[in-house]
Design goal:
CATH superfamily of the largest domain: Carbohydrate-selective porin OprB
Structural class: mainly beta
Number of helices: 3
Oligomer: single chain
Largest sheet: 16 strands, antiparallel, barrel
Number of strands: 19
Strand order of the largest sheet: 1-2-3-5-6-7-8-9-10-11-12-13-14-17-18-19
Radius of gyration: 24 Å
Length: about 450
């Protein structure tokens, strides 16, 4: 891929950094930080052992949570069958840059944010209810994009919408240490353990899911995921489109340093004739379309996934055990012929999430046009599409299928709650029939994120 022309990189970084904000510390958090500092000093002077200091920090954190729950319970009393509740969420600030050598594509530089906040309520008899609200962009009208919670800074500081991101009820009738079986209904976090090649990370499907885990022994366990999700409700038809899937994953720990995971999944979209490439089904491109913008191919892919992780005792510039993970995924859609394969392979060094920890990863991916439904795959993985190739559209830079290319990602956790991420996609189309002479499909997508989680 040709080197893309980039200008004012220093200005972009400065602008993004200037958009981040400092978090104000509450008195309770300040008190907890003081206690932790005292424990650290006692450990440094040898008054406390490492294990004693670790135990005291754990007790300190537990007491803080209990004090918070007690105070919250006194202000908002709950029924006797409620055993606990948890407030959680995250805020992410982003500098987003998309560009291409293609003269028809306008390079875009955007400041964006994502806000998600939710509440989980636990009850007796292994019952759970939860919801999460999230930001989103409705600039193109309703409905909003199901693949993104991003909101772009624009329109003179206008008020921005907040959406239901998840809303569900969950029952876990079996949890005996060997078997865990749980059922969920509503709008939920995706129950399938799949990469962005299969489902965009922000996609929260609506329907029902059944999940189970069987622990064979201390080194081997099996996970079973299944779900049936509504894609649309057509008032003038009895053939509503829906998505279903099943997945089995074997997790193994061969030695203290070596672990692996192997999975197989099958998905199906029923009544796909009721889906047409108009809102809300035009977020991504790539699938073959008919004259009426209906999807021609059937979508019944089989997906194989696997990974092997080796953990080093130590590594330069990294505090603690250092994992190295090789992973990949292969997809085949036997319901159609031609352009029906998808695959990726990559490696990840390290694991972020704790203060001072980091990871860096690389993957190469090819996803054929009709390997899977283009409306639910990663929408950040973009390339340039042409009107002649996608009927009814203009030359545009967007995500979907029929895309191949590279991804590099770096995460660094400044604290347990604050992580910086840099992401770079470099892609092009796989097939380019009937394109203008000299047409270019290369695209570069850069993102710099700073995320607070709570």
């Amino acid at each position: 891929m040709k080197k893309l022309k980039k200008q004012n990189n220093t200005t972009k970084v400065a602008l993004f950094a200037g958009a981040t904000a400092l978090m104000a510390l509450t008195p309770n958090i300040h008190a907890q930080s003081t206690d932790d500092a005292l424990i650290n000093k006692l450990e440094q002077k040898g008054i406390l052992t490492v294990d004693e200091a670790k135990e005291m920090r754990s007790e300190n954190a537990t007491n803080s949570v209990n004090d918070f729950n007690t105070a919250l319970g006194s202000k908002f009393p709950m029924p006797d069958w409620v055993t606990g509740y948890k407030l959680s969420g995250d805020f992410r600030g982003r500098f987003d840059d998309t560009s291409s050598d293609n003269a028809s594509i306008v390079a875009r530089e955007r400041l964006r944010y994502r806000l998600r906040v939710g509440l989980t309520v636990n009850m007796k008899d292994n019952l759970e209810v939860g919801f999460r609200l999230g930001s989103g962009d409705n600039s193109q009208g309703s409905p909003s994009n199901p693949l993104s919670n991003n909101q772009t800074l624009s329109s003179d500081g206008s008020k921005k919408p907040l959406y239901i991101d998840t809303a569900y009820g969950k029952w876990t009738p079996i949890n005996d240490g060997t078997w865990l079986v749980a059922g969920t209904f509503g709008k939920m976090v995706n129950p399938f353990d799949a990469s962005p090649m299969v489902f965009d990370p922000d996609y929260t499907p609506e329907g029902a899911a059944l999940q189970a885990t069987y622990k064979l022994n201390s080194a081997n366990s099996f996970r079973f995921n299944s779900g049936v999700f509504v894609l649309d409700e057509i008032k003038a038809s009895s053939y509503d489109p829906f998505l279903s899937g099943v997945q089995i994953i074997w997790d193994a720990k061969w030695t203290p340093a070596i672990g692996s995971s192997l999975g197989v999944a099958a998905y199906d979209i029923a009544n796909k004739g009721s889906l047409v490439n108009v809102p809300p089904y035009d977020n991504n491109l790539g699938n073959a379309l008919g004259a009426a913008t209906n999807f021609i191919s059937n979508y019944n892919p089989i997906v194989l996934s696997g990974s092997v992780t080796y953990t080093l005792d130590k590594f330069p510039l990294y505090n603690g055990a250092f994992p190295v993970k090789l992973a990949g995924e292969y997809m085949n859609n036997p319901a159609t012929t031609g352009n029906n394969i998808g695959w990726w392979g990559g490696v990840t060094f390290g694991k972020s999430g704790k203060k001072g920890a980091w990871d860096i990863s690389y993957r190469y991916q090819q996803l054929d046009a009709n390997a899977w439904w283009d409306q639910i795959v990663d929408d950040d993985n973009v390339a340039v599409f042409y009107p002649a190739y996608t009927p009814g559209s203009s030359t545009t830079l967007t995500g979907g299928t029929d895309i191949k290319g590279h991804l590099v990602k770096f995460n660094y956790s400044l604290t347990d709650a604050l992580t910086f991420t840099f992401t770079c996609y470099a892609n092009s189309l796989i097939n380019t029939p009937a394109l203008p002479a000299g047409a270019k499909t290369d695209a570069l997508h850069l993102m710099a994120d700073i995320m607070w989680k709570f």
